[in-house]
């Protein structure tokens, strides 16, 4: 996150692991809620951490949330591989997040689409690949030439606005775009920008108006709150050994193992890489 800390420092103890699971739950809840999902944050946590929900819900809403179980491990493994945001990574995230929801998950649109209430027309299908490449190339050019973290954050936010205007998929563009935005933050040692559902109208207005200054102010507010939230997790009294798995123990064994081992290796590799650059 901000303040010079490396991602490799994040998973040294159980509180840090719990923080990242908290990120996963909030990322899933707020992003799906922005798109109309009615499940509460507690219900979202039950699906992600326990694999079930105690009340009847639609199959679609269940999978909209459940698919996020794969996102954090994918983020961490991609960081380990030093994967940049490109067509392949974008399609990979879309394939995971839209699994069991549409038939063409992981594939760019082939039919023109519209954004309800938007004052622009999304990119035509045949132009999507080159538009995505241009977007990614521009993002990394700006990141490589950034003088500080604010420059990096601004580049990531502008790339998000561009992605939503391209609207490369038939469905799931908002969720995929917000995942990519968070990945860009983690890749650059910035706090994850999780758009709160309560600020949906502000967020939508920013996208419609291409308001990068407003987006920066909004993101800085979120960043400040996120750093504070993480610090609260880390300041909690360490758990006793018998209770060390707290939240992790509620995950399926395979998922917990994948999340913990993959995350630690990925983020330590990131830290080592940053250390070598100094």
Give Rg in angstroms: 18 Å
Q: How much helix, percentage-wise, in residues?
A: 55-70%
In whole angstroms, the N-to-C terminal distance is 17 Å
**Can you tell me the CATH class?**
Mainly Alpha
Task: From the 3D structure, determine the CATH topology.
Answer: Fic-like fold
Structural class: mainly alpha
Count of the separate structural domains: 1
| CATH 2nd-level architecture | Orthogonal Bundle
Q: Given the structure, what is the number of helices?
A: 11
- Beta fraction: under 5%
Order of helix and strand elements from N to C terminus: HHHHHHHHHHH
Instruction: Give the biggest beta sheet.
Output: none
The gross shape turns out to be: globular
Tell me the number of strands: 0
Mean pLDDT: 84
CATH superfamily descriptor: Fido-like domain
Q: State the low-pLDDT regions, or none.
A: 1-10, 240-258, 260-278
Pfam families: Fic
Domain Fido: 85-224
Protein name: Fic family protein
GO molecular function: ATP binding
């Amino acid at each position: 996150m901000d303040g010079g800390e490396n991602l490799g420092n994040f998973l040294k103890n159980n509180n840090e692991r719990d923080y990242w699971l908290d990120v996963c739950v909030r990322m899933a809840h707020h992003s799906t809620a922005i798109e109309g999902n009615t499940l509460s944050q507690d219900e979202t946590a039950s699906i992600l951490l326990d694999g079930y929900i105690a009340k009847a819900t639609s199959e679609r809403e269940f999978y909209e949330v459940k698919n996020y179980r794969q996102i954090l491990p994918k983020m961490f493994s991609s960081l380990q591989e030093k994967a940049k945001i490109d067509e392949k990574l974008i399609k990979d995230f879309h394939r995971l997040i839209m699994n069991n929801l549409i038939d063409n998950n992981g594939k760019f649109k082939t039919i023109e689409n519209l954004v309800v209430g938007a004052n622009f027309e999304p990119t035509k299908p045949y132009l999507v690949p080159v538009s995505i490449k241009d977007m990614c190339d521009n993002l990394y050019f700006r990141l490589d030439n950034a003088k500080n973290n604010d420059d990096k954050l601004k580049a990531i936010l502008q790339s998000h606005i561009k992605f939503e205007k391209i609207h490369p998929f038939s469905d799931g563009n908002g969720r995929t775009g917000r995942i990519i935005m968070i990945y860009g933050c983690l890749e650059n040692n910035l706090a994850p920008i999780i758009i709160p559902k309560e600020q949906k109208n502000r967020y939508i207005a920013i996208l419609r108006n291409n308001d990068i200054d407003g987006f920066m102010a909004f993101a800085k507010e979120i960043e400040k709150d996120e750093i504070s939230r993480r610090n609260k997790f880390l300041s909690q009294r360490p758990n006793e050994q018998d209770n060390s798995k707290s939240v992790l123990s509620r995950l399926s064994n395979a998922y917990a193992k994948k999340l913990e081992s993959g995350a630690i290796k990925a983020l330590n590799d990131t830290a080592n890489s940053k250390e070598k650059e100094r």
